[in-house]
Design a protein that fits this description.
About 30% of the residues lie in helices and about 20% in strands. It is α+β, with helices and mostly antiparallel strands and about 600 residues long. The radius of gyration is 38 Å and the shape is flat. The relative contact order is 0.08. The model has no long low-confidence stretch (mean pLDDT about 75).
């Protein structure tokens, strides 16, 4: 197309546009509908259903005054306009505006808006409505999107949310309200730190104490017996639910003055260190000023422990013992303080008995218990040989793991569980219950038959379709301790093939931690590596030292085997571990409980 033809085509296109813009409308066939007149919220001639929202963030006397004045002012503000109908005054007292948690009145108001009951919301200012920028803007937009839309009038700022010109101002003011809340939060944090730095801990009201004229905690003689009874009953063997039921029967009052006790309410008493005269500060902290969600302080904020801060109701040792009981209740531990036991004679000398439902014993406790009953290994050089015997130095006993025979007892650790294979269950004579033992010095693990009533017994097998099969043992309470003692990585699973020790009718399966295979997740393999052995999602990995030998030296293997002829069923003897707690004696516990329960029949003995 030449330049002249192109210009002619452009002129014709412009002419067509001009003709379209000068169309003559046929009035006989045309109707015009004008837009609705925008709502003038300043006008009192328009009938509107109005809600008022008031909020104060604390329950102080000054805030209460502000709260009541807000409600009265806006009640008159609405009722003086004849065409405005006051639906309700929604008021939240003593709650923060940075989230919707605990703002019950506000949430009811928004629900009523969505139900079509409200046309206009009136509030004092942006900070009363919300101190969270995103929350404020989101709610205003949600209300504007309703059919019909709901307007929010911020009286101090003279902003109507449905006014298109208000968006920028509302966003700015909501941001300032949030910033102000953040500044206040930081100021409170600084104030709290200054109190702690100057040795002035916070001591709010609690059962058993009152405050004197100077704000110090003093024992309340009417409430203290309830606190002491809770601790003594727990030490004696009562569960927290049994204590709560007893308090309800006795009509004992909580610090709120009611007589409706729950197990969690009793735990709240037993967990409070102030009852033993101490004060621990900053148990929780609030990382986010927007949601105000408290989290346990595990070192994220400084803490202080003030000992002998005030008069105690119970001893510190009684308090510490109760904490151990509560900590282990989650593992099904019975309401007693168990004693760590170690075997001091026989083939299992040096093995400590694992308490499967008690997490109070740590690696150091088991190690010191095992060291209290040392075993002297027989050096290979002292192995006696008869005339004509072969000299088997340099020979090795092949590892059973390489052959993987089905009859070899094995145990697997990991995933908060311990699992014995069928061969191990058969080796134990098909017993349903067994005791777990550990020797942290020589890094050995053992399992032997036990009675159902044995406090440390675990159920290792069950009958399914008339066949006894292995059963997974829950090991949350002690497995992390086993991993630490054996130097294992908690992210992996470990499997050990063991050996069977027998002495007459006595049987025990013993496992060497250094012979453990590691079960690694398949996804950990890199570079296209292919495993020699795999088990579904896991890959078997063996110690590097295994690649240079078939097994253990013959005489080292024989040296350990010499332990077998000795007794295998020897019971454990109690050993002292860690700091000794001087807990109130059972007779004193029983006497006090009888005294306080009066006509109620006390529990005669703790469940052992």
């Amino acid at each position: 197309m030449t330049g002249g033809k192109r210009r002619e085509e452009e002129e014709r296109a412009k002419l067509r546009v001009r003709r379209h813009l000068h169309v003559t409308v046929d009035e006989a066939n045309y109707t015009y509908f004008p837009e609705k007149k925008p709502v003038d919220f300043h006008s009192s001639d328009l009938h509107q259903r109005v809600a008022v929202y008031a909020r104060v963030s604390t329950g102080s006397i000054g805030q209460v005054s502000s709260f009541e004045l807000q409600k009265e002012y806006y009640k008159k503000f609405v009722t003086c306009r004849p065409n405005w109908e006051l639906v309700q005054i929604y008021a939240d007292s003593g709650v923060s505006g940075t989230s919707l948690r605990h703002r019950d009145a506000f949430n009811r108001m928004i629900a009523d808006c969505k139900a079509g009951k409200i046309d206009l919301i009136i509030t004092k200012n942006v900070s009363r409505f919300a101190r969270n920028l995103i929350l404020c803007i989101q709610i205003v937009q949600d209300l504007a999107g309703l059919d019909p839309p709901v307007c929010v009038f911020f009286e101090s700022e003279q902003i109507f949310s449905l006014d298109e010109t208000s968006n920028e101002a509302l966003t700015f003011l909501a941001h300032m309200a949030e910033k102000e809340s953040h500044i206040r939060s930081r100021s409170m944090e600084a104030s709290l730190r200054m109190r702690l730095d100057h040795g002035i801990p916070l001591t709010p009201k609690l059962l058993g104490y009152t405050h004197d004229s100077e704000g110090n905690l003093t024992v309340n003689p009417k409430e203290a017996p309830t606190v002491k009874l809770a601790f003594y009953m727990c030490l004696y063997g009562y569960s927290t639910q049994e204590i709560a039921d007893t308090f309800n029967s006795l009509g004992r009052k909580s610090y709120l003055g009611n007589v409706k006790w729950t197990a969690s309410g009793v735990v709240g008493i037993l967990r409070n260190e102030r009852h033993c005269g101490d004060v621990l500060t900053r148990k929780t902290y609030t990382p986010n000023y927007r949601d105000h969600l408290a989290k346990k302080n595990r070192g994220q904020r400084p803490r202080s422990w003030y000992k002998n801060h005030h008069e105690a109701i119970v001893s510190r040792d009684d308090y510490a013992a109760v904490q151990k009981i509560l900590d282990n209740a989650r593992y099904g531990a019975r309401q007693v303080l168990p004693v760590l036991r170690v075997i001091k004679e026989g083939s299992l000398r040096g093995f400590a008995v694992i308490h499967p439902r008690w997490a109070g014993f740590g690696p150091g406790d088991y190690l010191s218990a095992s060291q209290a009953a040392p075993w002297n290994e027989t050096p290979a050089s002292q192995i006696e040989a008869n005339a004509g015997d072969f000299d088997l130095r340099g020979f090795e006993v092949t590892r059973g793991e390489f052959l993987r025979p089905a009859h070899l007892p094995a145990v697997r650790f990991g995933g908060r569980q311990v699992h014995f294979n069928a061969a191990c269950v058969r080796a134990l004579g098909g017993q349903e219950y067994a005791a777990l033992l550990i020797d942290p010095v020589r890094k050995r693990f053992a399992v032997r038959p036990a009675g159902e009533k044995d406090r440390c017994a675990v159920r290792v097998s069950t009958v399914q379709r008339e066949v006894r099969r292995p059963r997974t043992v829950a090991a949350t309470a002690f497995l992390s301790t086993v991993f630490q003692l054996f130097g294992w990585n908690s992210a992996y699973q470990y499997r050990i093939s063991g050996s069977l020790w027998k002495n007459g009718h006595e049987t025990v399966c013993v496992f060497r931690a250094e012979d453990a295979e590691v079960r690694l997740p398949v996804q950990m393999l890199s570079g296209g590596s292919q495993p020699l052995f795999s088990a579904g999602r896991y890959v078997r990995a063996v110690p590097e030292s295994w690649t240079a030998a078939f097994g253990r030296p013959f005489y080292a293997h024989q040296s350990e085997s010499l332990r077998c002829p000795e007794g295998l069923a020897c019971g454990g003897e109690p050993v002292e571990t860690g700091e000794k707690l001087q807990v109130t004696g059972r007779e004193e516990l029983r006497r006090y409980i009888r005294q306080e329960l009066r006509e109620l029949q006390p529990k005669e003995a703790a469940d052992g």
